[in-house]
Amino acid sequence: MTGLLDVRRTGTVFLIALLALMLVAPWFANDYVITVLILVLYSAYVGLAWNIMMGFAGQLSLGHALYVGLGAYTSAALYVHFGIGPWLGMLAAIPVAMALGAVIGFLAFRFRVAGVYFAILTIAFAEFARIGFDHFTWVGGSAGFFLPVAQYTRNDLWNLRGSPTMFYYLILAFTIAAFLLSHLLLRSRIGYCWLAIREDEQAARAVGINTFRYKMIAVVISAGITSVAGVFFAFYYNNLFPEQVFHISRSIELILGPIIGGIGTLFGPILGAFLLTGLAEILHEILVAFGVDVPGARQVFYGLCLLVVVIALPDGVWPWLARVLRVSERRS
Amino acid sequence: VPAEIYLNVAVSGLLTGLVYGLMALGLSVIFGVVRVVNFAHGEMMTIAMYLAIVLFGAFKLDPLVMMVPIAGVLFCLGYAMQAGLINPFINRPEHSQFMLLVAIAIIMVNVLLIIFGPDARSVQTSYAFDSFMVGPLIVDATKVYAGGAAIVVAGLLFAFFRFSRIGKAIRACADNYTGALVVGLDVKRLYALTFGLGAACVGAAGAMLVLIIDVTPPLGPAYTLLAFVIVITGGLGSMPGALLGGILIGMTEALAGLLFTPSAKSMFAFAILVLVLLFRPQGIIGQRLS
To answer: Strands A145-146 and B131-134: what pairing?
Structure first.
């Protein structure tokens, strides 16, 4: 038993060390590193959110950009048109995304749209929203929607106007919250029901699990968490274009991290985000140094990474790394 | 007179729809036999379109003639993809196959972007502005040629699956995987052939479509989606369904572009997809898959 305890302890030590490093990073990192770390954490956060639906409950969504976009546009519209701050806007954005998630989930699960068909249904809704927002002139249509950018002298956390460091701590807090929430959900009755559905839906139904209900919970929770990333996106970038926010490539990028890191694990989405963004930045530096940085090179690299991981490590990098480091996360 | 405009647009949509149908036929054949959803379908079509553009730009070779060698190149590409990458994934979970093809798709789009840059390209044939007058109708000559070619290619494919020995063997694999193994069919090779044939379809469709629309590297994902919409509407795995779905979506898009705004036309295609998925998931003609 002491062996088991040691393994647990090593994992906890790793986690605390990583957290401490992330907390003090702004003191010694320059703005460029902070910007990259924001990208990493953003990607980890949305990856964790998507992971709840696919990794835990086994429902493949390829349209998660829909919830990011809804969160972004809801909070931005409330801020621009009514002067309602992002935190209150978030309280509106989360229910909006959850409601649409519930509609999609209800339609899909009631009409038994599953597997590939379910994935394509989620794409269809995201594309529908993209074209819809292109023609929704109240929020700028295809010309884009812009938040006022004023010269800031101090960090205004209430209105989310401020320096990259403020956004860094914000997304760090969100990521920690999403991680803890995933951890709690996975250890709860809901989590065990999800895993049962993921492994064998018919068997889950046979032992009396209301599969419809638990799949709905997964979609709604995942949509809600994802929409918070949208609020962050809107106030961090200050501009929104339907072509970018809702585009299918956003939905694909969003799921690369958890898939490379390891679907259904807690650390996978975080590790995947670090690996992908980190390696892409290093590659970018190398390409610039050699003067051959062309558009598309980074994406080819993403594609090759993904190809190697799906062929060589079908469960993702984290389960493999955990075995090598002998840090076992309870297999979920 | 508006009635004639509607008719003109509907006919034009029908002809474009035939080309869409041929493209979707490739996806449908692959899914029907190999049971793998080709998420790189539109990207493969973009490759064919750029091949047509390069051949036209360098040697003034007509895309409608070059359709044959281009389909041949795409056949080889498809065969190699299935034999080298996808066959080992046949028994892996759905999301794993999906990620493999997404990776291939991402690489294809961006390699095209690196080679050709982001600008839109097209071919200007000598008959680009010709048209036929049929009673009150004015029909683009290019669309008539493209639609006609699509019918011919689809007809050849139907005949192949219906009458040739290899075609029958492929259908046997699709009907009963274990049975096909038991009677001694080389299933993996037949799968590779099928993927090659599906790729050849999309290659031929790409060579035709280059006459109708401009091509940019990011066109791929949009046409992958369009192919899905069409095959699901028609019925995944049904060959006549794919053509019928193509015609339906082509005409819907054309008429929606006329009645509303061209930029909103694919919304109607997605609306049809959602309705079909919910109320007739097996498609207009097609059997429900377990």
So the answer is: unpaired
Q: Where are the alpha helices (DSSP H) in A187-296?
A: 189-199, 201-206, 211-237, 242-245, 248-261, 268-289
- Taken as a whole, chain B contains a residue count of 290
Count CA atoms closer than 13 A to A277's CA, side-chain side. Answer: 23
Torsion angle, CA of A115/A121/A124/A125, rounded to 10 degrees?
-130
> A188-242, pLDDT tens digit by residue?
999 999 999 999 999 999 999 999 999 999 999 999 999 999 999 999 999 999 9
Q: Which has the minimum average pLDDT: A317-326, B11-20, B108-117?
A: A317-326
Interacting residues of B40 by C-beta distance below 8 A, sequence separation 6+? B81, B101, B102, B104, B105, B108, B220, B224
Could you please report the per-residue DSSP string of A12-28? HHHHHHHHHHHHHHHHH
H-helix or E-strand spanning residue B137:
strand B137-140
- Phi, psi for residue B107 in degrees, rounded to 5: -65, -45
Q: Could B266 and A127 be called an inter-chain contact, meaning their C-beta atoms sit closer than 8 Å?
A: yes
Question: HEC profile for B271-287?
Answer: HHHHHHHHHCCCCCCCC
The ipTM, to two decimals, is 0.84
Can you tell me the distance from the alpha carbon of A248 to that of A136, in angstroms, rounded to the nearest whole number? Answer: 19
**Structural tokens at position A33:** 């590193």
Mind listing the pLDDT tens digit for each residue in B222-243?
899 899 899 989 887 788 889 9
- Is residue A188 within 8 angstroms of chain B, CB to CB? no
3-class DSSP state for residue A131?
helix
CA angle A26, A27, A32 (to 5 degrees): 45
* pLDDT at residue B287 in the model: 61
Helix (H) or strand (E) holding B142: helix B141-163
Strand pairing partners for A329?
Answer: none
DSSP of A71-87: HHHHHHHHHHHH---HH
| Dihedrals phi, psi of A146, to nearest 5 degrees | -120, 140
Nearest to B194 by CA among B249, B148, B239, B247: B239
Q: How many CB pairs under 8 A join A and B?
A: 112
Task: Indicate which of A64, A112, A116 best probes the interface with B, i.e. most B CBs within 10 Å of its own CB.
Answer: A116
